[in-house]
Design a protein that fits this description.
90 residues; two-stranded parallel sheet; two-stranded parallel ribbon; 4 strands
Length: 90
């Protein structure tokens, strides 16, 4: 949630989701936030290249209310914390 930037390691999270899917874990990743158009375009290309189109939903900026409506039971985390938490839960 917030700004998608190079230092947030979102591509690493995509690789992690791809690995989870290969291991049989069915996940849906929501990426919320905006950012530099070049970064967003690279992110979209990586999602497509990894075949994650049906497992990743990318949203722009959302208000807190819209975010809660979209993900009522979600726990909001940074990408690296999400990877660690999903790995522990697998």
């Amino acid at each position: 949630m917030g700004r998608i930037a190079e230092n947030k390691d979102v591509p690493k999270l995509l690789l992690f989701i791809a690995a989870l899917l290969k291991s049989g874990s069915d996940r849906l990743l929501h990426i919320v936030g905006g950012g530099d158009p070049g970064i967003i375009e690279r992110l979209d290309r990586e999602i497509a290249a990894l075949g994650l189109g049906s497992h990743v939903r990318r949203h722009g900026f959302l208000s807190r209310a819209d975010l809660q409506a979209l993900l009522p039971n979600a726990v909001l985390r940074s990408p690296l914390r999400a990877m660690r938490d999903m790995h522990c839960a697998s």
